[in-house]
Amino acid sequence: EPAFTQNPFIAYPINEQSQRGIYATVGLQLAEPLRLTLGGRQGKYNYHQESRNATTGARSVVRYEDDAFIPSAALNYTLSDQWTAYFSFGETFKPQADLLAPPYPGNGRLDPVTGDNLELGVKGEIFERVNAAVAIYQLKRNGQGALDTSSQSASNPADGSRCCYIPVGEIKVQGADLEMSGAVLPDWQVFGGYTYTKTDFEGNPTGVRTLGRTPEHQVKIWSTWRLPGSWNAMTLNAGVIAQSSTVFDTVHFGGYTVWNASVQYRVSDHWSLAVSGDNLTDKVYYLPTGTLYNQNVYGTPRALSFSVRGNW
Question: Which of 84-93, 136-145, 243-252 has the lowest mean pLDDT?
């Protein structure tokens, strides 16, 4: 089995990815309340990477290209002047030319990720003031690359590429989304959203690091209120983001709740002052933005800021 290696400096004089494509859509009014929209995109993907080992001078060149037709379709049904129901379908095609297939130090590139997206929803207005939308959805992904840990993965000392990745079994994501926004009162704007997500991994090979970091529950609420009467130069803003815990492989990221707020004061038609506070309770939490191995940073700690803004 290959051992973990301390890499020398690897330079990448060329590291390019490009996509080109054409797309088209057509709308068909099947009946007075029912409209069908068909679409498709023909895309071409190119990957070109050249690396150089600063110690030995060894060079490595990788070229990869692929193309695919990606169809989509949507049905919209007008329920009333305020409400519309819809159903949409779309396919997924995502190249993975940057991921090496086993055995070590790499045996070609992984095939693209394929799958489809389904969504069913209703959207409209309540009392002509508040916009509302409810949707349920399902996403399927096949062939997503994940790091293989059943054998001791390592980095190729020639070009720094990490090996090896294995296409996992089917990833199925099912969930629901609820969102409301609008003016509860003339000077009071409110936004609220809730998302439920359930992720299942089926048929993963032994030793593969799974990819689930999406929280099962997430809530976002925000409110903006411009004070009435002689106080109308002042606007108050407050909001909260809360989510349940997530698990990435064997690493547990705890759930968290973050409160933010700000006060704005309009001095004149051209000048305004503002005081903003982020993470008011100084909650300590991880914000995973990269892989399991890096770029997992602490979320922003409590912070206060003062600003002056002018416009003409």
Answer: 243-252
